Amino acid sequence: MKAGPFIIFFSIVLTLYGLVNAYIFIRGMQAIPEGSSWRNWYAVTFWLVAASFVAARVLERVYPSALTGVITWIGSFWLAFMLYFFLIVLLADLVRLIHHFIPFLPQSLFADYVKTKVILLLSSIALVTVVVAAGFINARIPKVRHLDLKIDKTIAGEKELNIVMASDIHLGTIIARRKANRLVETINALQPDVILFPGDIVDEDLAPVIMNNLGENLRQLKARFGVFAVTGNHEFIGGAEPAVKYLREHGITVLRDSAALVDGRFWLVGREDRDKPRFSGKNRMDLTDLVKSVDTTLPVILMDHQPFNLKEAAGLGVDLQLSGHTHHGQMWPFNHVTSAIYEVSTGHRMIDGTHFYVSSGFGTWGPPVRLGNRPEIVHIRLLFN
After folding, report:
1. CA 128 → CA 51, 96, 135, distances in Å?
2. Disulfide check for 338: which of 49, 106, 161, 326 has CB 3.0–4.6 Å away?
3. pLDDT tens-place string over residues 170-202
4. d(Cα 185, Cα 221) in Å, to the nearest integer?
5. Is the separation of the CB atoms in 300 and 383 below 8 Å?
């Protein structure tokens, strides 16, 4: 991304982040009684924690270390706390506004208003802590989703193709050795013919991946026809060239606007991420041009990280498109946002004879928390005539 647009984008995000935190901070401070020593502790703790996410994004690039990892974990968790504190404070203010015009709250709440505010503050902290903890546990337990999809094509001597797909792994500080081991063990246990990673394998910064030697985990993946991937937006955010080089050095074939005939049996088509122009200044190849050399009498599987313009693939002889990116919102209520933006936010759909599967993803971005959806590894049996 060019310096000018990046600075503008970063400034807008930082401003919004600061405003949301200021709103939560002010409402929290108003709930602590005047003159209480807790006010000072609250102010210092709040802003140190709130600043940790921004500090971590900078430190991961310039000084990856164990200390940076701790700051990253704190900042990442704070994003989840911030979201649900914001929703609670916003709801409380809406209730107060309605009560101002249409009184409906019991007067007993206002008899000792100072005590009421303290109780509400402590109750909110307890509730958000429980919610975030539940989301953290949920994010640590991926499920395997099994699908049987039939296409009207044949492969000589083959009745089915055993595919395992995992999108949005986000290897880095948060998704590190333990979860990478689980990914590899789960995939290998499914005995895949081919393993497909449709983007966002690494989480922006490559330094934590190298520091934790996560490439060695990827080397342990086993499939008859190999492991294939495409770039996602996070590969481009952190630098696509070094990320792709690292993945290729560790046994993954990265398809960059290219098509591969695998063992003479089926075609894999891999698109560069939709955000490539924004970060590199170069356009990705048009899908029509990309599939010109593909023999569509054989099964054709397309990987495209972001699930936009699905009908385009349906009209070009593609049998199965695999995507990710959405995380299905990752945390409620963002699943409603992604459902409004994307034709398919998660799951399977058939459009004009083409199968589409959009995965909610294996890893997480930002908070290591999932609410309203589960992390997943997708096991697809592609059945032939």
Report:
1. 19, 20, 10
2. 326
3. 999 999 999 999 999 999 999 999 999 999 999
4. 8
5. no
